[in-house]
Amino acid sequence: MADRCPLVDPSGARVTLVTALAWRAIAEIVRRRHATHAFNVLQIHPGISARGLLQLQLHATSRGESLPAIDFSLGGPSGMWSAGSSPQGCFLDLLNPEPASVIDHIEEAVGLPRWRGALPATSVAALSVRVVAGLLESRVFDQHGWRSTLGTYGCHGGDVVADWAGLMGVNPSPPDPDGNLHRDARERLSRLVLIHRSADELPVAKLSGLQGRALIVDIATGRIARVEGGGVEPLGDLLQMRAAAGGSMARLLARLVTGL
Predict the structure, then answer these.
(1) Which residues of the chain have pLDDT under 70?
(2) Which residues pair with 81 in a beta bridge?
(3) I need a surface site. Which of 19, 136, 138, 240 has the fewest CB within 10 A?
(4) CA distance 251 to 82
């Protein structure tokens, strides 16, 4: 078990850096495995700290088998990942000279075979997750703190549903009397990712809490939109936008970053 990160003090890592690297780890695992495994990304707040955590769930499509969930802690200390009850490593090690070895270690911990060979052709969901990671990475040196909020996140009192989800046409049934969403509603809302400024490092579930511009990525459909002042401006379909950029992720991200 790793108890500290060699390059970054976990207790002092900015929320933007930690969030970006958590999404990068998720994106690289999804990029490798999306052809054979369905995936869900969930958000739990506060988790073991006020920043909360992101959880990646993988399901083998051929056997219907669920792998152990992978938790990426954004705080308390930040940067730790686990596939069980205790931390098993530090995803801030992605800053080391061999970042792929971190992904290898995480996959090994949940029982995935060593990755070999070419990556599968991308999918809408895989591309969308890579875009989320790339956009957050572009904010690491911004003077403001940035993070992500999913369309719903779990907390001690049940599921919190973001009011901005309706801007993307996603309006599921409300939580039950105990505050819990139906599984299908939770999974659909969790595929909406808001990338936003966060002065207090907390998620944003209400439009009134947004500061400046934000972007919403819909992992399910590949659509992306800009949010500002309570209004929404659709920006397009990510697969089509990447094709228009000559297949270049760098050019696609450069275009999208202007929306922030």
Answers:
(1) 1-11, 86
(2) 72, 89
(3) 240
(4) 34
**Tokens at residue 20, please?**
């970006």
- Say which residues have a Cβ less than 8 Å from residue 123's Cβ, sequence separation at least 6: 34, 35
Looking from the CA of 9 toward its CB, the CA atoms found within 13 Å total: 2
CB 148 within 8 Å of CB 188: no
Q: Are 132 and 195 in contact (CB under 8 A)?
A: yes
Tokens of 106: 């995480």
Label residue 255 exposed, middle or buried (CB < 10 Å: 0-12, 13-18, 19+). middle
pLDDT tens-digit profile of 35-83? 999 999 999 998 778 899 999 999 999 888 899 999 999 987 778 999 9
Q: How far is CA 66 from CA 181, 185, 238, in A?
A: 21, 19, 28
